[in-house]
Write a structure and sequence with these properties.
The chain is of the alpha+beta class and 429 residues long. Helix content is 33%, strand content 23%. The chain folds into three domains: 95 residues, Beta Barrel (OB fold (Dihydrolipoamide Acetyltransferase, E2P)); 62 residues, Dihydrolipoamide Transferase; 198 residues, Chloramphenicol Acetyltransferase. 29% of the residues are buried.
């Protein structure tokens, strides 16, 4: 009757952090009720109960990091009596103790390598860890050189927590300091280089978040697997500016530059299907629907939520969708569905500053990405009605399409950019 609640699998996500419990130990919950908040590399999501039950024991601390599929709590069916719960817990704990005793017996019977004997308490960790411990505590043990098998656990069922490891590390460090030779107290002078290291670099170590680790992995894989090329084209945004001014003169909110470009690009992708595609081992999948990832900068890093059926949206509708998703992203409230199923990506680094070129890393396995740098005021040669030319300053946007050369040659990309240029430069006509 006693079963484990596990961290749900979420596609390619490997790690997640428990943000907070929303149900207390001993409390009953109903199907669909929120149990806890979980932070992945992409978002903070609420995990709901799949059935009615009682949360008997939490196995995870708030702030603790888990592997997907790790147990996070123990539960029993709704209506289970206190006597049955107590009996089930006792049976569970007895089984855990027997398992731990067996593991410890195996560990004690195994000969200790000579290298480990020489390295002592702060040496290399054993290849297997025969103790109940969290992923966070094992990571901290590696970082601090603590033998986790010597740490007394204070968590549920004697589980070693991150705080237990940190306390052990502090004790080992203090013990080492006490064993230091008394040479420093005997009045012996140290060499200046030993007493003070002039010019030594100092700084702050910031552990990689789950999101940053995933971004690093995905970016490295994309650059390693896909040969990247970028084609650029200058777009005169004079017509786009006039188009936006019409909204403002009428007293209505104007669509954003990003909304206008994204809506035009999405409609064109319905015709230029080879760019609205994903590269797979044995084929190139051309999608009939344009699901547009839009890159959004947040404090926790870059996220790219999906706007579905983007080819059907007007510039104003696209602007509103992007604004709504940006608000959710910066609040850490994107759902798993908000991030899944994209077929093409738009990146807008120009929103952060006057970036001249928007070469980007592909959002694999997608085969193309549209980059929008900053708008530059540039002198250009403009054809006049009498076929003469004049130099005028115009708002120029250098759009860039980064593409996977395994899937695409330059021709389809240039044709897409030409069509996008024509559409944007004639939008107010």
């Amino acid at each position: 009757m006693l079963t484990e609640l596990t961290i749900p699998m979420m596609g390619s996500v490997e790690h997640a952090r428990l943000v907070q419990w929303l149900v207390e130990e001993g409390s009953a919950f109903s199907r669909g009720e929120s149990l806890y908040e979980l932070e992945t590399d992409k978002t903070v999501t609420t995990v709901e109960a799949e059935e009615d039950g009682i949360l008997v024991r939490a196995l995870g601390e708030e702030g603790q990091e888990f592997l997907m599929g790790d147990p996070v709590a123990l539960q029993v069916p709704a209506g289970t009596s206190a006597e049955v719960i107590e009996r089930e817990l006792a049976r569970h704990d007895a089984g855990s103790s027997e398992e731990a005793d067996a593991d410890n017996a195996v560990a004690q019977a195994a000969p200790e390598p000579a290298s480990s004997q020489a390295m002592g308490a702060r040496g290399a960790l054993p290849a297997t860890v025969p103790v109940k411990s969290s992923p966070r505590s094992r990571k901290l043990a590696r970082e601090h050189g603590v033998d986790i098998t010597t740490v007394t656990g204070t968590g549920p069922r004697g589980r070693v927590t991150g705080d237990d490891v940190l306390r052990e590390a502090a004790m080992v460090a203090a013990s080492s300091e006490e064993r230091e030779p008394a040479a420093a107290q005997s009045g012996d002078r140290q060499e200046p280089a030993q007493a003070e290291s002039k010019g030594q670099l100092t700084g702050t170590s910031i552990p990689h978040s789950s999101r940053r680790r995933t971004i690093a992995r995905v970016m490295a894989e994309a650059k390693r697997e896909a040969p990247h090329l970028t084609a650029d084209m200058d777009i005169d945004l004079s017509a786009v500016m006039a188009f936006r001014s019409r909204y403002k003169r009428a007293g209505h909110p104007a669509p954003s530059i990003l909304g206008i470009v994204a809506s035009q690009a999405a409609r064109l992708l319905s015709e230029h299907k080879s760019l609205n595609a994903t590269f797979r081992e044995h084929d190139l999948m051309l999608w009939n629907t344009v699901n547009l990832n839009v890159g959004i900068d947040t404090e926790g890093g870059l996220v790219a939520p999906v706007i579905r059926d983007a080819q059907l949206l007007t510039a104003m509708e696209m602007t509103d969708r992007i604004a709504a998703l940006a608000q959710l992203a910066r609040a850490g409230r994107l759902s798993r569905d908000d991030l899944a199923g994209g077929t093409f990506t738009v990146s807008n680094p120009g929103a952060l500053g006057p970036v001249v070129r928007a070469e980007a890393v592909l959002n694999g396995p997608q085969v193309a990405l549209l980059g929008m740098p900053g708008i530059q005021q540039k002198p250009v040669a403009v054809r006049l009605p009498d076929d003469s030319f004049a130099i005028q300053v115009r708002p120029i946007l250098r759009l860039g399409v980064t593409f996977d050369h395994r899937a695409l040659d330059g021709g389809p990309v240039i044709r897409f950019l030409n069509a996008l240029k024509q559409g944007l430069e004639s939008i107010d006509r």
